[in-house]
Amino acid sequence: MKEMPSVIDSEVFLAFSTYATIVVLKMMLMSPMTAYFRFTRKCFANMEDTGMAKTPEDKKRMLRVDPDVERVRRCHQNDLENIIPFVVIGLLYTLTGPDLSTALLHFRVFVVSRLFHTVAYVLPLPQPSRGLAWMVGMGATFSMAYRVLSTTHL
Amino acid sequence: MKEMPSVIDSEVFLAFSTYATIVVLKMMLMSPMTAYFRFTRKCFANMEDTGMAKTPEDKKRMLRVDPDVERVRRCHQNDLENIIPFVVIGLLYTLTGPDLSTALLHFRVFVVSRLFHTVAYVLPLPQPSRGLAWMVGMGATFSMAYRVLSTTHL
Amino acid sequence: MKEMPSVIDSEVFLAFSTYATIVVLKMMLMSPMTAYFRFTRKCFANMEDTGMAKTPEDKKRMLRVDPDVERVRRCHQNDLENIIPFVVIGLLYTLTGPDLSTALLHFRVFVVSRLFHTVAYVLPLPQPSRGLAWMVGMGATFSMAYRVLSTTHL
């Protein structure tokens, strides 16, 4: 890989690449989890998805809102709202050339906080476990954003 | 463009850049499509958007949920949940230095699957066309994520 | 930072880095704003979030939809639908090597339009202020996408 610029060969970039992929894959797995709950709860959003029903009445009955499905969807939405900012700001942070140990601390705190957030949301665990997980993840992203803004200029 | 590092001049990066832009533009076009259905169906989410109504009763009647608008919005949400992971993982995959032909295969399969997904969702086409399109797109992203994780290290 | 490739040291990249971080931070602040409205309106989506209630009846009464909370959430969703495409296409645009002044114009128009969009949505201001802010932001992103597509090839 001689054509790679050194920043991309750097250990910080490789660490970012790995942790960003892990946390984005975790986010993507919320889609199959939603599908699983939709099929087991027989609860769909589109008429064409109710093919397993035998009568038109059954079809209509499957077009409903289920609390378990909605819980998984809220968790997925929270992932979109938090993981994507982490990926964007984490990439810019990586390019500011931070220490490997500081960068790893940020990436690991964020990824662990979001894995715990998902468990706390889906089970659910009693509050404030989910709230704290959310705040820790936000804190890691804000800390990286601070470095990006203080090493660049308008 | 002599200041460009070679990875960014590479054909894989140029291909990623083009396909990512196409698929993000497709996602962005869901917003005007939602606006189009909101205006033609006279169905809005905010009181200040009902300026075309003449009486207060008409305004209130326009604050409603319309099945066609909701269908386009669900398609848009599914795009957010699938296209953004493709862009993130696709960029990291591009930086691992894959073969051009393998990379093009991944990018083209994903983009075609999402274009077909939108058609299948909005018309709608009978299932499992939309479900299969969604799975093919997920598969392309998972395949790129596998390469990212196997060529980096924690 | 001698190991940085020159594209990343470039002034366009530093400008992108700053404006992208600002607008992503703005988007992230919609989460605490939603939390603020949820607590002051006593309106939650999850049973485990209603710990401040004293009786089971109070808990159930807090599981409701509040128009102020929904307004902030729609603003947050609109940010996801617009700011993330800006970040993706803005990064690719930055790597095409545009003039600094042209790039700054795109970034500043976008960031100002989204700050104004949030004010127009949350207060709310009368239409078409929010609609125009949304269109100006879309225009800036489309203009950058045009340059990305015309300087790359399939």
Automatic annotation (TrEMBL), chains A, B, C:
Just give the chief location class: endoplasmic reticulum
- Keyword Ligase (UniProt): no
Which chain regions cross the lipid bilayer?
A: 12-37, 83-111, 131-149
Question: How does this protein sit in the membrane?
Answer: Multi-pass membrane protein
Q: Which reaction does it catalyse?
A: RX + glutathione = an S-substituted glutathione + a halide anion + H(+)
SUPFAM superfamilies for the chain? MAPEG domain-like (SSF161084)
Q: Name one GO cellular component term.
A: endoplasmic reticulum membrane
Which domain of life does this protein belong to?
Answer: Eukaryota
Family annotation (Gene3D superfamilies): Membrane associated eicosanoid/glutathione metabolism-like domain
Enzyme class, broadest EC rank: transferase
Q: Name one GO molecular function term.
A: glutathione transferase activity
Q: Which InterPro entries match?
A: MAPEG-like_dom_sf, Membr-assoc_MAPEG, MGST1-like
Location(s), subcellular: Endoplasmic reticulum membrane; Mitochondrion outer membrane
Q: Which family does it belong to?
A: Belongs to the MAPEG family.
Which function does this protein serve?
Conjugation of reduced glutathione to a wide number of exogenous and endogenous hydrophobic electrophiles.
**Record's protein name:** Microsomal glutathione S-transferase 1
Q: Which organism is it from?
A: Salvelinus namaycush (Lake trout)
Please name the taxonomic classification of the source. Eukaryota, Metazoa, Chordata, Craniata, Vertebrata
What gene is it encoded by?
Answer: LOC120043573
